[in-house]
Amino acid sequence: MDRYRVIKQLGDGTYGEVLKASNKATGEIVAVKRMKRKYRSWEECIALKEVKVLRKMKHPNIVRLKEVIKENDILYFVFEFLDQNLYELSKNRRKAFPECAIRNYMFHVLQGLSYMHKCGYYHRDIKPENILVCGDIAKVADFGLAKEIHSRPPQTDYVSTRWYRAPEVLLRSPSYNAPIDVWAVGCMMVELMMLRPLFPGSSEADVLFKICTVLGTPTAETWRDGIKQASMINYRFPKLSPAPLQSIVQHASQESLAVIADMLLWDPSQRPTCSECLQYPFFRLRYGQTPTSTS
């Protein structure tokens, strides 16, 4: 790490802290993730899921890993630096983002995730803090919880921040997969429109309750596997009618509501893939076309 000068701390998490630094020789600004756990061997470092994922993926909408450094049993990831994340960008706003900005950011996120899924991994922790932005460019970051799409169940370890957690994860399904990333993107889209989380529950049961207030109670027709999974953990869905999305996000266009509604389907097998989302009219609108208002 002698080649870098630390400027300031950007964040501190469970597994590591993130630092803003500059390359002493070139002056280039980078983000350095310093892991908290000690690593005795280089083989141990290379075997890390985050290293495997990032070394395999090269995409303009995935944050670029520049190098991995091991020094005195401490592991450092050196990334390209982006100004801020989507949470920071939105937390002090008083006025909702224009829909064209939301379309742009979510287009980039879906492009990055689509590539990731095609590479055989899903993210498992999509949230505004893990989407880095610089100008009008958005990139997916933080792959510490990523997993292989074809890995064998059970998938039982911690996954995703609660407010963006898909219902199959909240019900502790042993076989969730890439559709949980699509659900999280749908939650983020609505959050950028409202400037507040869609399902801000204080517990897993509370998040499920809040999902039911929007989607209505699932049935055997809308999500048979979910009804079975709920009964296996002795969870009883509250009896609620769905609320139209346009009553929640009143100024959203019909095109945006159409893709959000499908991203937030109870049944993960019915949600569109990331690449299918990009084919919806909302993302195919060209300059000069006006989205259809619902108000």
TrEMBL record:
This is Protein kinase domain-containing protein. GO terms for molecular function: ATP binding; protein serine/threonine kinase activity. Belongs to the protein kinase superfamily. CMGC Ser/Thr protein kinase family. CDC2/CDKX subfamily. CDD domains: STKc_MAK_like. ATP binds at residue 33. Keywords: ATP-binding, Kinase, Nucleotide-binding, Phosphoprotein, Serine/threonine-protein kinase, Transferase. The keyword Metal-binding does not apply. Residues 4-283 form the Protein kinase domain. The keyword Nucleotide-binding applies. InterPro entries: Kinase-like_dom_sf (IPR011009), MAPK (IPR050117), Prot_kinase_dom (IPR000719), Protein_kinase_ATP_BS (IPR017441), Ser/Thr_kinase_AS (IPR008271). PANTHER family: MITOGEN-ACTIVATED PROTEIN KINASE.
